[in-house]
Design brief:
The chain has 290 residues and is α+β, with helices and mostly antiparallel strands. The chain has eight helices and twelve strands.
């Protein structure tokens, strides 16, 4: 199996003699050094070119000498002066070349399973959120009552009167526009023949989230109302009204102002029931006559 016999007087011959004196085979020595048997035989036979550049040959010789309790420094001096020592190599050491290959391997290796699982879970969450948002928007559009007048026209109607009582200041210029004779005001439910008689009318001097439901549970409004706008709603009463910024809202029924009691407003938020008579009650009970 070897490529030759150890050269007498060479470092390899000394190593082979020491190994045999210990009763070790080349295979056993290779196993203890975690090298191949070919490397052991190459060192013993002086075939240093098989060990790669001199820096690797020196390393293998030092480890082998230590295993056999030989003087590593003396063995390396013999190696340096040996006529069979290979010339210094100017090539890139194998370890450096392998580094590039390892880098390329890492660049193209497959991602870990937990990374793929996390990405799949994130994709499912995003898809579910998008579906939920789309369903909510579709439900809002199908349940919101159609308006007969664009929102931009609500600001063009002349304000005949304020919702506030004479001499009493309101949170802002919340006014009720006069309805055109041939169409109902924006947000009003019912036909134009019935007009606003007996209906609930709301004016807003500031931005406010608004929800309105009639006595049958039908949702009449679900929106963010801008300052200066108004909304009117027909029955059936009572109306369940949710106001996200109650202090900026003025209400009236049949031209009669309907104030929202201050003790029903919690941090500007109010959820009240307004009867056709003008009484205002908390949704938890307790009517207040206006």
């Amino acid at each position: 199996m070897s490529g030759g016999e150890p050269v007498a007087g060479s470092p390899g011959a000394a190593l082979a003699a020491a190994r045999e004196a210990r009763g070790l085979t080349a295979a056993q020595a290779a196993e203890q050094l975690r090298l191949t048997q070919d490397v052991i035989l190459a060192m013993e036979e002086g075939r240093y070119q098989a060990l790669g550049p001199p820096v690797f040959a020196r390393g293998h010789l030092r480890k082998y000498a230590t295993l056999l309790s030989q003087s590593a420094d003396e063995l390396l001096r013999d190696y340096e002066s040996s006529s069979v020592r290979v010339a210094e190599s100017s090539l890139i050491p194998p370890a450096s070349a392998h580094t590039h290959v390892k880098s390329e391997h890492r660049r193209h290796r497959r991602p870990q399973p937990w990374v793929l699982a996390l990405a799949a879970a994130a994709a499912v969450v995003i898809a579910a959120a998008g579906w939920w948002y789309w369903q909510g928007r579709t439900a809002e559009q199908s349940e919101s009552p159609p308006t007969s007048t664009p929102a931009t026209e609500q600001h063009e109607a002349p304000p005949p009167a304020s919702f506030g009582a004479p001499g009493q200041e309101e949170p802002g210029p919340a006014v009720l526009p006069e309805a055109a004779p041939d169409r109902a005001p924006a947000g009003q439910t019912g036909s134009t023949e019935t007009g606003v008689s007996g209906g609930l009318m709301l004016a807003f001097s500031g931005p406010c989230w608004l929800e309105v439901y009639d006595a049958d549970g039908a949702r009449l409004a679900f929106e963010l109302v801008e300052p200066g706008e108004f909304r009117s709603f027909a029955g059936p009463a009572p109306w369940r009204v949710v106001l996200g910024n109650a202090p900026v809202v003025s209400a009236q029924i049949d031209g009669r102002r309907v104030p929202i009691p201050a003790d029903l407003i919690i941090q500007n938020f109010a959820t009240v029931s307004i009867a056709a008579s003008g009484s205002v009650a908390s949704m938890s009970g307790g009517a207040r006559e206006s």
